[in-house]
Task: inverse folding
C-alpha cells in the first residue's frame, strides 16, 4: 500500500490512554418459554410430533422414514426413489407439485442415506393444508413416471461423478469403509453402474415395500395449534397405511481402534484427516459428561484442538470433533483438512491433544466454559422454527422427544468436573480411534511413516 | 413486522435496534463499509485477511480471548467479507448483551495487530482457500472466475480471496493503514436485535462505543465501469471437475439507484430457475436434458450484497457431450420468449410467495435477521427495507420482468467456461 498517507502504526492502534478494561459480567438469564406440543402415534403407526413455535407465520415439516436395506442395489434404488418421489402422482404432475408448493411459499425436498429417507419442507402457515395434501399425495400415490425416472437416472449418474471428486465425499467413503467394512451403512453414495440398471418398476416396488408409516416420525413446528394439526395430519395421511413396519438399518458394529489408513489422492494440495471412535448415545447417563469432554477437546472453536492446530500452528482452516449418531449407537468423529506439507504434523498434534485430554484433564474453567456453551448454543439453535424442527427430528429418530430437549440444560448443569474428567479418560485414548488420511502419497508418505501408526499404500 | 429504532452516536457510529422478546437470545453485528472491491492492487484478498485479524485480540483481550468470551457466554460468532462490506457478529443468550457490545467496541477502538498473528492468519487463510477453491471441483465457481471476464477494472475483476503471493506480502503496516482508513466508527453500522430493552441497550452502547475516537469517514469510491459491448469469453481449467460448466454474467441495474428495476431482476431469477416449474429448469434440465444442474441469481452471492455494478449470473454444469453453444442457445431462446411475452401472473405469484416465506424464515433466524438489517442499513440507509421487500417484490409486474429479460443481451455479457483437466485419480 502507499506509504504517503498518514496513519498510526499497529502498535499505536492497539493501545489507548485508558488502557485495558474489564470484561463485563453476564446479566440475569431469562429461561426459554415452554413449548406446547403433542406427541402421538396415529392408527397407521406414524408418530407425529407437533410443536407450537409461532415466531413467524410459517411451518417446518420433517418426515423420517427408516430406510435400511441389505440388497447391494438398495442404495441405487433408494437414491433414484428420493430423486423422483416428487415428480408425479395420479393427481399432479411434476410442475403441478412445484406450482402448488410455490403458491403457498412452500418447498419439499428429499434426502436418503443408509438409515432413512428424509422429507423436509416448509410453507407459509396458512398453506399447511396444501403442504400436507401434497405430502400425503406423494406418499400414497407417487407414480414415478417412466420419463422422469429415466431422465433423473441420467442426471444422478452425472451427479455421482461430481460427488466422487469432492475430497469430503472421498474421505467420508474411505472412513466408512475403514471403520465399518462392508456393512450397508458404508453405502452412502450409490455406484453409478448400479444406478444405470435401476428401472421405474424397481423404484415403484421399493416405494410399495419401504415407504411406510409404521416406525416413521413426522415433526411439525411452527405457527400451528398442535392438537388441531394432529387431526389434520391424521385426515391427510389416513390413506397411507400398511401392517408392515419401515425397515431400520441393521445395527452397526462398534468401531474398533486401529492404525490410520493413508488413502491416495494424487495431486491433492490438501489432505483430509478423519478419525473416529466408539462413543455414547444420548440415552446414556454419561452422555452429557462426554458431550462436555468432547467440547473441550475439539467440539467448538475455543477447544484445545482448534487453538493448537489452527490458532497456534496455522495448519488448518477448521478442525472439529463431534458426535455422529447411528441407530442406537454413537461415535466421536474428528476432522481437519490440512496442507500436504503439514499433514503428518497435524495428525501428530491431534494425537497429542487426545493424550493430553487424559493426562491434563479438563479444568474447572474449561468445564464451566463448555457447559455455558452447550446450554447457550442449544438455546440459540432451537430458537428458530427450522432449527427446532431439525433438532426434534433428530431426537425423534432416536426415540426421544420434547422432554429430552427441555431436560438437557439441567443435565448439563448437573454434570460435575469429575464426571467430565472420567469421560475424557475413558473415551479419548488414542488407541480407541481409527481413521483415514486422504492425500497425495508422494508428499505424505515419508512424514506419516516417521510418525507411525499409519498404514501406507 | 418488527419495531426498529435508529440513532447515531457522537463519533458517527450508526445504530439499529430491533427488539424482539420472543426468545431469550440477542444478536450484535457490526458492518464496516469496506469490502474486497476496496483492496489495493497487489493486495488481493487483503480485506478478508484483515477480517481474520480482527478476531486476534484487542487492547483488553489477548489472542483467543474474543472466541472464549463469546462461546464461554453460550454464544456463537463469525465474520464475513463481501464485495462492499465486512460484517462481524455474535448471537448469545440475552444475559451476554453487554459482553458482546464490549467485545465489538474493544476491537473497533484498539485491535491488537501483531506480526505473529498476521503470519498465523495468512497460513489459516491459505488453508481456507485450499479447502474452498484449490483442492475441490468447481472451487470458486463462479464468483472468482466470472468477474475477470465480465469486468475490466481491478476492483470489480480481481479475486477477492486473493493470490497466495499477495497474501504473503501483506505487512503489519498495511493492516494499520487499512484499519485507520476504513474501520472508523463513522464508517460502520452497529445492529442489535432480539431480547433487550431499548433504553437499556442505548445506555450500554453509549457506555462502550461512546469513547471510540471519531475518525473521518473515508470517501467511497465509484466502481462504475461501462457495460461490455460484445460477448466476452474466458476459460478456467479445473483439475478436479469431472464435467464442464459454464457461467453467464450480465450487468444489472444499480441495486441502490434503480431498486425497482433491480427487484425485477430478482423476480426474473426466480422465474428462470426457482423450482421444477421454472423456465430454465423445465427446458434445460427436464425437457431437453442438456444440463445436470443450473442456477440463476441476482448478485454473485445473492441479492443485496453489493452496490453498483452488480452481476446477474446463470450457471450450469453439463455433460461433456453437450456443447456450451447448445446451453447458450437454449438460455437465449428462453430469455427471448420472456422478452417477447411477459410471464404469467401465476409465475410471479409463485416467486412472491416463496420470497415472502423465505423472508419470514430469515427473520426467524436471529443471526440472518441481524445481518440483513445491518447490511440494508449500510447499503440503503434503510434497515426497514427488509420488511417492505415482500410488498415491493409483489409489485413487480410481468412487463417489468419481461423488460429485465430483454436487458440480458447476448452481445453484452461474459461467458466463462470451466474446462475439466481430466487426470486419472486413484478413486
Result:
Amino acid at each position: 500500500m502507499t506509504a504517503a498517507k498518514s496513519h498510526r502504526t499497529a502498535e499505536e492502534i492497539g493501545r489507548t490512554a485508558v488502557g485495558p478494561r474489564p470484561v463485563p459480567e453476564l446479566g440475569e438469564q431469562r429461561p426459554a418459554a415452554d413449548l406446547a406440543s403433542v406427541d402421538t402415534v396415529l392408527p397407521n403407526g406414524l408418530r407425529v410430533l407437533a410443536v407450537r413455535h409461532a415466531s413467524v407465520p410459517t411451518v417446518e415439516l420433517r418426515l423420517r422414514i427408516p430406510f435400511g436395506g441389505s440388497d447391494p442395489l438398495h442404495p441405487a434404488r433408494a437414491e433414484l426413489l428420493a430423486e423422483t418421489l416428487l415428480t408425479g402422482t395420479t393427481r399432479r404432475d411434476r410442475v403441478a407439485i412445484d406450482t402448488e408448493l410455490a403458491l403457498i411459499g412452500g418447498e419439499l425436498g428429499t434426502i436418503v442415506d443408509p438409515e432413512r429417507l428424509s422429507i423436509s419442507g416448509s410453507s407459509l402457515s396458512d398453506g399447511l393444508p396444501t403442504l400436507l395434501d401434497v405430502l400425503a399425495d406423494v406418499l400414497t400415490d407417487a407414480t414415478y413416471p417412466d420419463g422422469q425416472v429415466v431422465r433423473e437416472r441420467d442426471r444422478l449418474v452425472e451427479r455421482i461423478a461430481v460427488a466422487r471428486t469432492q475430497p469430503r465425499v472421498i474421505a467420508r467413503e474411505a472412513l466408512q469403509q475403514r471403520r465399518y467394512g462392508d456393512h450397508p451403512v458404508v453405502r452412502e453414495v450409490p455406484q453409478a453402474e448400479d444406478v444405470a440398471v435401476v428401472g421405474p418398476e424397481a423404484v415403484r416396488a421399493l416405494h410399495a415395500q419401504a415407504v411406510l408409516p409404521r416406525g416413521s416420525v413426522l415433526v411439525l413446528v411452527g405457527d400451528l395449534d398442535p392438537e388441531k394439526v394432529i387431526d389434520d395430519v391424521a385426515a391427510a395421511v389416513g390413506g397411507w397405511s400398511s401392517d408392515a413396519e419401515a425397515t431400520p438399518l441393521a445395527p452397526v458394529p462398534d468401531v474398533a481402534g486401529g492404525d490410520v489408513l493413508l488413502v491416495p489422492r494424487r495431486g491433492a494440495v490438501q489432505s483430509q484427516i478423519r478419525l473416529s471412535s466408539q462413543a455414547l448415545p444420548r440415552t446414556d447417563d454419561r452422555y452429557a459428561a462426554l458431550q462436555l469432554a468432547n467440547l473441550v477437546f475439539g467440539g467448538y472453536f475455543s477447544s484445545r484442538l482448534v487453538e493448537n492446530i489452527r490458532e497456534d500452528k496455522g495448519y488448518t482452516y477448521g478442525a472439529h470433533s463431534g458426535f455422529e449418531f447411528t441407530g442406537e449407537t454413537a461415535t466421536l468423529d474428528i476432522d481437519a483438512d490440512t496442507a500436504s506439507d503439514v499433514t503428518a504434523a497435524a495428525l501428530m498434534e491431534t494425537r497429542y491433544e487426545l493424550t493430553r485430554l487424559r493426562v491434563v484433564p479438563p479444568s474447572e474453567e474449561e468445564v464451566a466454559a463448555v457447559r455455558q456453551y452447550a446450554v447457550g448454543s442449544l438455546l440459540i439453535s432451537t430458537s428458530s422454527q427450522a432449527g427446532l424442527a431439525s433438532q426434534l427430528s433428530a431426537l425423534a429418530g432416536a426415540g426421544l422427544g420434547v422432554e429430552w430437549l427441555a431436560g438437557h440444560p439441567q443435565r448439563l448443569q448437573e454434570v460435575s468436573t469429575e464426571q467430565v474428567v472420567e469421560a475424557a479418560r475413558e473415551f479419548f485414548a488414542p488407541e480407541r480411534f481409527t481413521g483415514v488420511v486422504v492425500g497425495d502419497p508422494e508428499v505424505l508418505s515419508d512424514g506419516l511413516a516417521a510418525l507411525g501408526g499409519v498404514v501406507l499404500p | 413486522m418488527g419495531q426498529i429504532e435508529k440513532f447515531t452516536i457522537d463519533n458517527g457510529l450508526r445504530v439499529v435496534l430491533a427488539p424482539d422478546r420472543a426468545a431469550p437470545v440477542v444478536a450484535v453485528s457490526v458492518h464496516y463499509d469496506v469490502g474486497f472491491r476496496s483492496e489495493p492492487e497487489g493486495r488481493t484478498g487483503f480485506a478478508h485477511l484483515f477480517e481474520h485479524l480482527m478476531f486476534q485480540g484487542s487492547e483488553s483481550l489477548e489472542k483467543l480471548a474474543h472466541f472464549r468470551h463469546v462461546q464461554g457466554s453460550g454464544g456463537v460468532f463469525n465474520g464475513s467479507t463481501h464485495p462492499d462490506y465486512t460484517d462481524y457478529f455474535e448471537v448469545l443468550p440475552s444475559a451476554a448483551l453487554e459482553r458482546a457490545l464490549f467485545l465489538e467496541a474493544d476491537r473497533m477502538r484498539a485491535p491488537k495487530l501483531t506480526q505473529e498473528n498476521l503470519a498465523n492468519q495468512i497460513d489459516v487463510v491459505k488453508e481456507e482457500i485450499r479447502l474452498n477453491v484449490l483442492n475441490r471441483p468447481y472451487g470458486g465457481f463462479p464468483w472468482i472466475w466470472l468477474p475477470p471476464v465480465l469486468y475490466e477494472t481491478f476492483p470489480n475483476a480481481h479475486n477477492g480471496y486473493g493470490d497466495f503471493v499477495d497474501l504473503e506480502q501483506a505487512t503489519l503496516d498495511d493492516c494499520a493503514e487499512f484499519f485507520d482508513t476504513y474501520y472508523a466508527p463513522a464508517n460502520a453500522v452497529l445492529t442489535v436485535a432480539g431480547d433487550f430493552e431499548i433504553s437499556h441497550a442505548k445506555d450500554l452502547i453509549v457506555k462502550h462505543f461512546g469513547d471510540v475516537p471519531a475518525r473521518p469517514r473515508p470517501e467511497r469510491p465509484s466502481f462504475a465501469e461501462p457495460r461490455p459491448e460484445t460477448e466476452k469469453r474466458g476459460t478456467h481449467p479445473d483439475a478436479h471437475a469431472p464435467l464442464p460448466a459454464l457461467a453467464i454474467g450480465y450487468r444489472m441495474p444499480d441495486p441502490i439507484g434503480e431498486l425497482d428495476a433491480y427487484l425485477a431482476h430478482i423476480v426474473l431469477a426466480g422465474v428462470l430457475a426457482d423450482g421444477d416449474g421454472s423456465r430454465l429448469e423445465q427446458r434445460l434440465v427436464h425437457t431437453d436434458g442438456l444440463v445436470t444442474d443450473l442456477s440463476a441469481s441476482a448478485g454473485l452471492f445473492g441479492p443485496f450484497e453489493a452496490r453498483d455494478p452488480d452481476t446477474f449470473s446463470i450457471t450450469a454444469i453439463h455433460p461433456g457431450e453437450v456443447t456450451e453453444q447448445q446451453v447458450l442457445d437454449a438460455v437465449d431462446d428462453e430469455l427471448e420468449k420472456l422478452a417477447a411475452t411477459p410471464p404469467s401472473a401465476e409465475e410471479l405469484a409463485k416467486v412472491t410467495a416463496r420470497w415472502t416465506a423465505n423472508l419470514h424464515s430469515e427473520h426467524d433466524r436471529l443471526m440472518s435477521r441481524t445481518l440483513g438489517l445491518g447490511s440494508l442499513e449500510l447499503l440503503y440507509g434503510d434497515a426497514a427495507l427488509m420488511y417492505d421487500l415482500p410488498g415491493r417484490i409483489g409489485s413487480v409486474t410481468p412487463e417489468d420482468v419481461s423488460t429485465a429479460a430483454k436487458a440480458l443481451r447476448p452481445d453484452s455479457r461474459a461467458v466463462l467456461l470451466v474446462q475439466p483437466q481430466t487426470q486419472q485419480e486413484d478413486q
User: Anything to note?
Assistant: Chain B touches chain A through 107 residues (CB under 8 Å). Chain B has two domains: 5-209, 231-342+397-420. Chain B has a mean pLDDT of 96.
